[in-house]
Amino acid sequence: MITATMTIHEALAELKMLDNRILKAIENANFAVANKHANTRIDGKTVATFVEDAGSAYQRICDLMARRKAIKHALSLSNAATKVSIAGKEYTVAEAIEMKRSGMELKKSLLCTLEAQLNQARRAVEKANRELGEKADLYVTGLFGSKEKVSGAEAGTVREAYITANTAEVVALHGIEAKMEALNAEVTAFESEVDSRLSISNALTTITITY
Q1: What are the pLDDT digits (tens) for 144-162?
Q2: Residues contacting 49, CB < 8 A, separation 6+
Q3: At 202, phi and psi to the nearest 5?
Q4: Per residue in 127-162, is it b (16+ CB within 10 Å) or e — as a string?
Q5: What are the tens digits of pLDDT across the range 8-63?
């Protein structure tokens, strides 16, 4: 049984190396070949040596995979227990990693949708209201006839009523601008700190593996 202690930073670096070593070892290993019964040597080795080397290669790969599994397991336990403070909030390392990979992307998607829909609604309102005066004049003219006849109090009242009824306005989520500001602040603060906080934690936190 082997026991080893390392920092999270060292463990992450070793995991990358182990993946490459395992794949290379599998690729280069010879576990089985076709051989004539009369041939006493395979690639310059005795048959017994070939079989022995195949067993050694298999065991080395199994040992590497066992070490990788032990590191992965220890990392998972550590990440679930180790706490980091990011932008005034406390997270486990696992939570912080998930927020970095997915959580904040979802918040940014929500923020972009809020901004896009609000801006679209504002542009539509601005355009509609900009054209409202002309539409009101046409409406009144259609009711009362030529412009010469459109001068009385009744025509003015109708025009005002038309404008009031047709004035466009933005209808939105309650407090949408405040929510957008809060989301933007949260995303910006988190993304500005998460990498450095995780890096510090990975450099200071140690794990012990046994396999």
Answers
A1: 776 555 557 777 888 899 9
A2: none
A3: -65, -30
A4: eeeeeeeeebeebbeeebeeeeebeeeebeebbeeb
A5: 999 999 999 999 999 999 999 999 999 988 888 988 899 999 999 999 999 999 99
Q: What is the pTM of this model?
A: 0.77
Which string of DSSP letters, residue by residue, matches 156-199?
HHHHHHHHHHH------STTHHHHHHHHHHHHHHHHHHHHHHHH
What is the distance between the alpha carbons of residues 72 and 68, in angstroms, rounded to a whole number? Answer: 6
- Mention every residue, 6+ apart, whose C-beta is less than 8 A from residue 7: 202, 203, 204, 205, 206, 207
8 A C-beta contact, residue 209 and residue 18: no
Q: What is the DSSP string of 92-126?
A: EHHHHHHIIIIIHHHHHHHHHHHHHHHHHHHHHHH
3-state secondary structure of 80: helix
Give me the residue spans of the domains in the chain.
Answer: 3-81, 90-204
- Residue 109 has which token pair? 């998607």
Whether the Cβ atoms of residue 80 and residue 53 lie closer than 8 Å to each other: no
Residue 190, judged by CB atoms within 10 A of its CB (0-12, 13-18, 19+), counts as buried
Whether the CB-CB separation of 82 and 93 falls below 8 Å is answered with: yes
